[in-house]
Every structure is written in structure tokens, then in C-alpha cells.
Amino acid sequence: MRNTILLLFLFQGFLLSAQEPPKMLKYDAEDSANIFYYQLDEVQKKIKIKKEKVKNITRKALISYNNKIKDISFLNFQKLRELETLINSVGDQVRGNPDLGRKLRKNIEIVILPIRDSIEIHEKKLNTTLETVLSKKQYKRWIKYQRKQKRNLLPERPRSTNQNVPSNMNRRSSRGRSNRRF
Q1: Residue 139 to residue 33: CA distance in whole angstroms
Q2: pLDDT by residue (tens digit) across 31-79?
Q3: Distance between CA atoms of 142 and 127, rounded to whole angstroms?
Q4: What does the pLDDT read at residue 182?
Q5: What was the pLDDT predicted at 104?
Q6: What radius of gyration do the chain's Cα atoms show?
């Protein structure tokens, strides 16, 4: 009798632990606002710039961009830190309270979106400057590098330890582009 009750409690405990939601990731306000700086030497290597004149123009454009982003970051530092501490402290309570989630989302929109818009304006200026200087191939590499840097800012989704990921998940089907059979 004791063994069956003990087994019942253990089984129930396993079921409850299997249904726990993943932990809240640490929120980084600077990453969500797309605040990052380009490494000058790394950019020149990735784009494969050979000419000194083009290197100097690219370096000047990147330095001015980084300075503008530093100014934006400095001016909004307090807002971003407050938002970050608020979200990290209240993060687990959001799942159970949808009103709190809406308030946080609204707060994020108020703080983050204007910063993101101003950074986007500076990025467009940088891209137009680099487009005039770089060749088509180099500019294509630049855009690819820029996208990769932005993608690195996105947080990774937490994986559940209970679920097994199939080994062939990344394989493409041989059915073609539209995934049709015939």
C-alpha cells in the first residue's frame, strides 16, 4: 500500500516537472534596440577590401557610425537600464498575468522603438556611403555581414531538456522549392 502511494506521488511529480514552462531568458535592452558597434578590422576583412583609399573611406564611415551609436546609447542609457531591470524582475510573473504582459510590451514599444528608428536612420546613411565606395560584390558582402550581426543580437529560444530533437531536422526534402511531390 505504501509503495503504491509512493509510486503515485513520484509519477505525479514527474508529470508536473515535465510540464514546466521554460525559464525566462535574461532581457538585454541594448540588443533589442539594435545597439552594437562594428569592429573596423573585422569589417574590412569580411568585405575583403584591398585598396587603401577604399579602406580609409570605409574606416571613416564606420567610425562616424559607431560614434553616433555611442551617443544614442549614452543618451538613452538610463531608460534602457530601467526597462531591463523591470523586465528581468517581473519576467516570470508575465506568463500568469496578461495585463502585466501588455503593460510591459507597451513600455518596450515606448522606449525601444524610437531608439531603433534613430539607429536605422544612421544605418541607412552608412549603407548609402558604403554603396558608393564599395564594388557590388563587396557591398553584397557588407549587407550579408550586417544581417549576420543583427541576427546575433536576437536571443536564442530555450530548448526543453525533455524533448528530443530529431537528427534530420535541418535536412531539406528532395521535393523541390515549393515542397511538392510532382
Answers
A1: 24
A2: 888 888 999 999 999 999 999 999 999 999 999 999 999 999 999 999 9
A3: 9
A4: 47
A5: 86
A6: 24
- CA neighbours within 13 Å on the CB side: how many for 60? 7
Half-sphere exposure of 106 (CA within 13 A, CB side): 6
pTM, full prediction: 0.71
Helical ranges in 48-97 per DSSP H: 52-75, 77-90
3-class DSSP state of 26:
coil
- What does the alpha-carbon distance between residue 29 and residue 72 come to, in Å, rounded to a whole number? 13
What does the pLDDT look like over 77-87, one tens digit per residue? Answer: 999 999 888 88
Residue with cell 580609409: 56
Residue bearing cell 522603438:
113
Q: For the chain, first and last CA: distance in Å?
A: 61
